[in-house]
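Quick start: what a row looks like.
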Amino acid sequence: MVKVDLKKPLVFQVGHLGDGYEEWVHDPILGKEGPRFFHSNFLEFFTRTPWYAIPIVWIPVALFFIHNSLTMGVPPSNISQLILIGLLAWTLAEYLLHRFLFHVKTTSYWGNTFHYLLHGCHHKHPMDHLRLVFPPAAAAMFAVPLWNIVKLFSTPTTAPAIFGGLLLGYVMYDCTHYYLHHGQPKSDAPKMLKKYHLNHHYRISNYGFGITSPLWDVVFGTLPPSVKGDSKSS
């Protein structure tokens, strides 16, 4: 069986695990120090992103899109509704991306390598604080097709505000995700979300795909079994 040397850069090792990759990547290492990805310091730099980069980069972009709808004549009274539609659309996108792309099953060399870069690294090293949120360049690659989907289902004047709301939803998602791993919530709702998400990491990774909310897990039947049991008994 192929083994991975954790003291060496990982990205081009994990592909060799073949069908053993799935088991390996869901056996987490709990240390706070993340692994090295590449030999190249230049490439390595782009794999690390502090959480605060997300609001700094994406909130101005979201406000730019929202402002575009205003300048095209959408009444301010309607803007908040469009933003809410975008926020709700993000929660669905969050669920679908997490379930069907981030948890795609791979066995090939390049499939394993791509998955490790996309999401596998987070499951293997869930406490690596610099590889928890999406690097802005990677997020932009998802933003472009999402913008095109929004335009497909809305009008030219409303699409920017909806997309701005979707981007604000993304900011909320990545900041929430960081907090669920590294924050110490005091109130009940954040405590529940933290427990819910850590259950996905450490207990049953093929359930509980919602990060900001379990809404779409309820809709699509992917609530973790323990949560289903708790809801029936309450």
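That is the whole record. The chain has one domain: 10-213. The mean pLDDT is 93.
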